[in-house]
Design goal:
Elements: H1 26-36, H2 42-49, H3 53-66, H4 80-84, H5 90-107, H6 110-119, H7 126-129, H8 132-145, H9 150-158, H10 161-166, H11 180-190, H12 199-208, E1 234-236, E2 239-241, H13 245-255, H14 257-272, H15 279-291, H16 296-304, H17 307-310, H18 322-333, H19 343-353, H20 376-396, H21 399-409, H22 416-427, H23 435-446, H24 451-455, H25 466-477
Helix pairs in contact: 3-16, 5-19, 8-9, 11-12, 14-15, 15-16, 18-19, 20-25, 21-25, 22-23, 22-25, 23-25
């Protein structure tokens, strides 16, 4: 295939082996955990430094594969009457489950990173279907299939109650076929816009998808109604027969496998590597996807273990989403907050304020991400939001700021310049290009401590001013443009 768009990262998919010029260090470990998951506490980073990168990635993927979905809440399969009989309204139940999603992000890594990714691929908007039970069941499917077989994933998600209502599948009958799901199945979920299908394919697909309309109780299961199914021949991708829903999935993956593989691997690349796509790399990933019958995990192993993933030009090229800017930072910090602070609820609210309301993307095409995450308004809101979290952490326990610095340094240190730079570097994807920002950070870090204390060895991280110095430095850190990148 002719490459029409090349990335500045030209490293291969060969397995990464640390070298003097590309070492396995804290920067690489943080890169791994911030891309595959939502960051890691300093202890986890230190442990990772003693592991082989490929072995570590295999372990992270295996852990994600073996992780059970979050257990169902009491109301996970309730119908409308059940919810009406409780004091809370449906909005509160949905909000509580979004808080659970935040909790899962803090507890887990790759599985819940992918759960977030797929929620922006197989998009639904929770306010459209309203049922908290449908929300849980949809979320459960995202977790269940996050690293599994994409063909099975596509089949199951299309029959979820949330999706049937969101894209009008529950209104699709033989007398009034609705094309919404058929169109998005091809355009957004498997092939891409105008890639390998025609309007007639959509029309015929809609007919084959009819019949999933039966619901005996409001917010109850939606099942197949044979009387509303179009029981006539349809021609889709050149195959003619009395096709139904399951036939559509089979025919799609039989007739358009290369297009599916290319489309999904491009999305994975943009999400995990860079918004600028290296098509040669995507082609190789797509071939793996095709050869493994659309298993997701082998593609991720190939990508994450590669020289391409760990190349210096992969670092700091993705703009952090509202989830990343909050969850990553505070997982890296590993700070305690007051029990009554309701941190998960605050993170969820912050995501909504910054334009990434969980389980409610902006439209069926999802959040576009990257530069869409930041404008003059959201940038200052990011600073204010993170600064407020830091302030609450400071008010709760000042000493944890000293503990953080000592953890980063691996012990006490009296080298004020090294400490300041190390703290900044720890939370950035790569070193700052401008020495001026390091100098600014150092001056802020040293402020209000007599200069001679640094010169005569009086000062160290065990000095009484150190916690506040770290706090002020972190407040400076969050305003550095490079802090917005991962």
């Amino acid at each position: 295939m002719i490459t029409t768009n090349t990335s500045c990262n030209v490293a291969s998919l060969n397995v990464y082996s640390p070298t003097d010029s590309n070492p396995w260090n804290r920067q690489k470990v943080n890169h791994l955990f911030r891309r595959l998951g939502f960051g890691a506490i300093p202890e986890t980073v230190d442990n990772a430094l003693n592991q082989n990168p490929s072995t570590l990635i295999d372990n992270l993927i295996d852990e994600a594969l073996n992780l059970n979905p979050t257990p169902a809440p009491e109301w996970g399969y309730w119908v409308k009457d059940d919810f009406d009989a409780t004091p809370e309204n449906s909005v509160e139940y949905r909000r509580n489950w979004k808080n659970q999603m935040v909790a899962d992000m803090f507890q887990n890594n790759l599985r819940d990173r992918l759960t977030l990714f797929w929620s922006n691929h197989f998009v639904t908007e929770d306010n459209v279907y309203s049922s908290p039970a449908y929300m849980f069941q949809y979320y459960n499917l995202l977790q269940l299939h996050a690293l599994g077989n994409f063909k099975d994933f596509t089949s199951d998600i299309g029959l979820s109650s949330a999706m049937l209502i969101y894209l009008n599948g529950n209104e699709n009958t033989k007398n009034r076929p609705n094309e919404n799901y058929g169109r998005e199945l091809y355009e957004l979920f498997t092939l891409g816009v105008d890639n390998g299908y025609t309007q007639n394919d959509i029309v015929e697909t809609a007919r084959a998808l009819t019949g999933w309309n039966k619901r005996e109780l409001r917010w109850g299961p939606i099942t197949f109604d044979e009387n509303k199914f179009d029981n006539e021949e349809k021609t889709i991708f050149g195959q003619t027969g009395n096709w139904d829903y399951y036939d559509i999935i089979r025919i799609l993956f039989e007739e358009r496998p290369q297009q599916i593989a290319q489309f999904i691997c491009t999305k994975l690349y943009r999400y995990f590597i860079s918004p600028v796509v290296n098509e040669n790399i995507v082609n190789q990933l797509a071939q793996t996807f095709f050869e493994t019958n659309f298993e997701i995990a082998p593609v991720l192993r190939q990508l994450f273990k590669s020289e391409h993933f760990f190349d210096q030009r992969s670092l700091g090229v993705c703009i952090k989403s509202p989830v990343d800017i909050q969850v990553n930072f505070f997982k890296d910090l590993n700070f305690e907050l007051p029990a009554d602070f309701e941190f998960n609820n605050k993170i969820r609210g912050g995501c909504q304020e910054l334009g990434q309301e969980l389980l409610k993307p902006v439209d069926v095409a999802g959040w576009q991400g990257d530069k869409d995450w930041i404008d003059s308004s959201t940038l200052t809101t990011r600073w204010d939001r993170i600064g407020w979290y830091l302030w609450r952490s400071w008010r709760h326990n000042e000493e944890q700021f000293r503990v953080l610095a000592i953890s980063i340094m691996g012990g006490d240190s009296s080298d004020v310049e090294l400490v300041s730079r190390s703290i900044l570097d720890y939370f950035l994807s790569k070193e700052l290009l401008s020495a001026t920002e390091y100098s600014q950070g150092l001056e802020i870090f040293k402020d209000q401590v007599p200069e001679n204390y640094f010169e005569d060895g009086t000062w160290s991280l065990n000095w009484n001013t150190a916690p506040r110095q770290v706090y002020i430095l972190l407040q400076f850190l969050i305003t550095i443009p490079e802090f917005q990148l991962k």
